[in-house]
């Protein structure tokens, strides 16, 4: 019966997809001009995108394009080294440390009740603040790896400061509040390089399975090979490649601090039959022993906290081990 009435309503012009699809454009992750001098407008755009999508691209962020291309060039060079050379930076087994090189190529990974092949190599390096940097895990080859990454971290720092300020103001907080709540100047920038080689059977493999990031915010640059998808209202959307744009992901800790106003975005990546995809997400993480919870100024008798307050390290432990938070 329902189907019948839905079908008959198709006769009405305003129900036809050809007419109701907005200007023939597919819904897409918002694109925000970070250099807009109208700060009020910028705050509205950032706040809406952080609430509705949890993902957006920022352009005109002031990081010179050469800085981004160098970051990309040295990362690519590292992954093209012989396997033994990369293994020299392997994550020490049982070290408990996230840093170093790891591979999931050819390994079985499970997503729900289906098992697929993982198809990604990665390298993790903490790149900011200088006090947490451990050069032991930074490739010495190519020789400019260190300089390129340090340069990127320095520029990214300005973007992070501005973004956290806008996100705070968007919640009606003072500009410094969210950064303070996330660990202040101890907020850690964890760079991950994902390297997805061409995959003969993209239908049987996934880059990364659907997940939300544990971070406060993740800032990602991709190469030009399509693969990242964001989920909104139960549907998946390709995140289109825009040269030099930064892809902002709202992560779990930001959702928690904002008491649910901002949404941690569900995302995944597909792999390509012919091309190598590479991405450089930087996870902005509180120190492990830093306590994170809904911001005290956002909760009261009416707005009860929707999340627990706990150490970030404990949050990570529960998520990785699939324990309730
Ligand atoms: C991740 C991730 C996306 C990408 O590593 O957490 O979501 O585009 N990567 O590679
Ligand atoms: Ni992710």
From TrEMBL:
Pfam family, one: DIOX_N
Cofactor: L-ascorbate
Keyword set, alphabetical order: Dioxygenase, Flavonoid biosynthesis, Iron, Metal-binding, Oxidoreductase, Vitamin C
Signal peptide: none
Stretches assigned to the Fe2OG dioxygenase domain: 186-286
Gene for this chain: FLS
GO biological process, one term: flavonoid biosynthetic process
Protein family: Belongs to the iron/ascorbate-dependent oxidoreductase family.
Alphabetized SUPFAM superfamilies for the sequence: Clavaminate synthase-like
InterPro entries documented for this protein: DIOX_N, IPNS-like_FE2OG_OXY, IPNS-like_sf, Iron_ascorbate_oxido_reductase, Oxoglu/Fe-dep_dioxygenase_dom
Name this polypeptide is given: Flavonol synthase
MF (Gene Ontology): dioxygenase activity; L-ascorbic acid binding; metal ion binding
